[in-house]
Amino acid sequence: MNLGKQYKFNNSNFTQDVVISASPSDIVGIDGAKAYYSNFLTGFSNIQFTIKDVFGQGDKLVKYWNFKETHTRYLLDIPTTGKYVGIDCST
Q1: How far apart are CA 8 and CA 23, in angstroms?
Q2: Is 21 helix (H, G, I), strand (E, B) or coil?
């Protein structure tokens, strides 16, 4: 997903009670999903987002992705570090 397209988090693409598995707690609902991904847009620059694999069964979907970026702005109570970050994640 292009991180700049949060408008795609809507009732046509997701159920209202969509769950994103995250730590320390799951993200529940469309508004929560939008807010979760917005953090990546506001805290980082030089963003490279790559979906590595997607698979599903029944009404469940898992996405394995990679996110590379530079921490250039304040993020979730974390002051700017200027460090390069790379994350592999499944949601």
Answers
A1: 23
A2: coil
Q: What is the 3-state secondary structure (H, E, C) of 37-53?
A: HHHHHHHEEEEEEEEEE
Contacts of 32 by beta carbon, 8 Å cutoff, 6+ apart: 20
Taking CA atoms, 44 is separated from 41, 54, 61, 88, in Å, by 6, 24, 26, 16
Domain locations in the chain as residue ranges: 6-90
Residue 78, SS3 per DSSP: strand
pTM: 0.57
* CA atoms of 72 and 30, how far apart (whole Å): 27
Give the model's pLDDT for residue 28: 93
Q: How far apart, in Å, are the Cα atoms of 21 and each of 28, 36, 61, 84?
A: 9, 11, 11, 24
For the 6-90 domain, the top CATH level (class) is alpha beta
